[in-house]
Specification:
316 residues, alpha/beta
Length: 316
């Protein structure tokens, strides 16, 4: 079972440059959450802060009741055992075959026998569809297979939290679709808490239980996917529709008058309670594949129903 991550008032800077400030959110245990945002908004920095690789200037990150921002290195090392991380490129060792890459954390951090390691590695390779590729080197396989190998390696220590740093980068749309289904299936099977940083809007619409958006050094919104996908917030609508009109510019800053003019031209300037032709549509969430059962998560269902009820009230 995954664990809840509670972030309160988190602020991170590099020198005089504020990356984001006063970020507060709760990643619900066992659910899939996605963090969106334009390039350069510090999404990967946020992941590194959650796992304790970067220290924030202010705020707290509570995992299993412990604030990792205040832990000593030894205690932080223990908390990090809860995490599995899938990096953008899979971060595989080029000189090792896939089997040895995936076995590496077990050999490094446990005292398990080679027979036990083999059982675990083959189990995880089977989960991500890599059985038969044990002897292949990372340079001999496709980008999609490298991602799956990196995911298998992230799974071998049975983490309760898995962080995905742009898992879809460098993949074609078909491989992204397969990866999305794999993520949904894995979450149903292992019930860990997932946080995915991505730019892929189709993935953000289909995969998560919850969505957040970072923009202009702050967390604009975080909540059930239904709330974000039907939001009237201009920056949320612009990003999810992938259009130029709105607060996000090439350099991330736009003049307020220009934004207002662009939104008015689109019919998005009508204010709260106004539903325009450009309103967000609610994409169905991906379901686990055949034979994979995901037990009902009543807290998530209650949050979704509350978000949809609130949207119905606004429409009325």
């Amino acid at each position: 079972m995954g664990v809840e991550i509670c972030v309160e008032g988190l602020t991170k800077s590099f020198g005089h440059q504020v990356i984001w400030q006063d970020v507060s959110l709760t990643l619900p245990a066992g659910e899939v959450s996605v963090m969106l945002g334009p390039s350069g908004t510090g999404k990967s920095v946020f992941l590194k802060t959650l796992v304790g690789l970067l220290k924030p200037e202010r705020g707290s990150v509570k995992i299993a009741g412990r604030d990792i921002t205040r832990l000593r290195e030894h205690d932080l090392h223990e908390v990090r055992k809860l995490f599995g991380v899938l990096f953008q490129d899979g971060a595989l060792f080029g000189s090792m075959n896939l089997y040895d890459n995936i076995a590496f954390p077990l050999r490094e951090h446990t005292r398990k026998s080679e027979s036990e390691i083999r059982r675990i590695v083959l189990e995880k390779m089977d989960m991500v569809g890599l059985i038969g590729a044990e002897e292949k080197l990372p340079g001999e396989i496709s980008g999609g297979m490298r991602k799956r190998a990196g995911l298998a390696r992230a799974l071998v220590l049975d983490p309760e939290i898995i962080l995905f740093d742009e898992p879809d980068s460098g993949l074609d749309p078909v491989r992204v679709a397969y990866l999305n289904q794999l993520i949904v299936d894995l979450n149903a099977q292992i019930d860990a808490t997932f946080l995915i940083v991505t730019h892929d809007i189709a993935s953000a619409r289909q995969v998560p239980d919850n969505i957040g958006l970072l923009f202009r050094r702050e967390l604009v919104m975080f909540g059930p996917r239904e709330e974000l996908l039907t939001s009237e917030e201009p920056v949320v609508r612009q990003f999810l529709n992938g259009r130029m009109q709105g607060p996000i510019g090439m350099a991330e800053e736009k003049d307020a008058a220009q934004v207002e003019q662009e939104l008015a031209a689109l019919g998005d300037g009508g204010g709260k309670g106004t539903r325009s032709p450009g309103s967000q549509t609610l994409t169905p969430r991906l379901l686990p594949g055949p034979g994979i059962h995901r037990p009902p998560r009543w807290e998530a269902i209650a949050r979704r129903e509350a978000a949809l009820h609130q949207e119905t009230v606004v429409d009325a």
